[in-house]
Target: Phospholipase
Amino acid sequence: MKKHLFVFILITFTYPSFAWNNHAGITYLILKDHWKNQTPPQVKVESLNSFLKQEKDSIHEVLSLSENWALQKLPHLTKSSDNLKFSPKNSDSDLVVQFYRALRVNPNHKAALYIQSVPPTEGKKLPLDELTTLHEKGKLVNETFISLSEGDTIGADHVLISATDEPDYDLDLHLFEDNNSEVGKLYGFGLQPFGNPAVEYSSQAPFHMGFFYEPKIIFTLAGFLKKTYPELRIHQFSELSKLAFRKGHPYWGYRFAGWALHYIQDLTQPYHSSVLPRVSAAKQIGVQLVSFVGYQKPKNNMIEFVSGRHTLIEEYQYYLIKNLILSKNWNHPVVSSIMNISENEKREWKGYDDVRTNVCREAYDAGDPTDEQLENLNITKYEVLYEENHPIHSILGSLLKNTSKHTRAYLDQLKM
Model:
């Protein structure tokens, strides 16, 4: 039974797992309100190699503490091998790759000096091949990236806006044993627990999803669904952010904070905190059982319907947010939901346990009503942006209000 349910879940997760397609745009709108009464700090641009060279000893300690925390929190996480550890004795010429390997991320990630220009502005354009190793660039071709140089001065808001999008550029690609990569065999994450290991973008799914509230029978039959890692990334990058601020590297303080925020924002998306909203455990198992005797239609329909709504809300959100920013339509109901957070709606970041008990719980609870409302719209895919009073904006506004609340809570606790 476990093997067959594995196949079912594997197929379910072969559709794209982008979560919010436009982290930069969402964060732009949040900061436009959250920092409206203050001028964003100006920070000096610094290369990752320069930061690492100056803070070797501290980085070694922070990464060790972060791994110890994660090993206690995530029983499925294996201890990294000693030859992956970041050591103060490392050669300065290879610090960036050694740092990535110690984090157990894609060692080919570029960490270019740039900003994602939201809205687009003039400047020296950064070629996409200097930003990402992705073969399929997707919507990145629609964005404007401006090159920066070490020593430039830039607003902290631009750093955060850009960094919240960055983990999707390739940071978590090809990290499992069956991803046909060298590091996949070194990092100790085992086989990819769900998603299609042969699909480039799908290989990152277990780092951007978190399932904590499924029925016990689902976890009993499909324990691999527990093998998710966003909490690891949130802790790693948050602790590095704190270190950077503490040691006088505000550029990397904000950039690491943006990386951590990416995963928090992903988990506010119901389809990243719930396996199959509105599909009971009994139905999931039932449609799989009837498929064993050749009746595939119920399973195929269920996967198609759920994945279709998942894709719809993400596609629509991407193009809507871009349009609202370009048109400066600050009165649109979705913008209002993101920017107008009352005192009663505000959240307080109390620690890393909030990721499960607050962020994911809220997203999971929103899964069923969101999925039902999207189904009732009878829209099969994104084709056009609708008038402001269209019900899709009420659905999207409710979800992005949660994203806004948790982003603000995280930003308020930064020790800058």
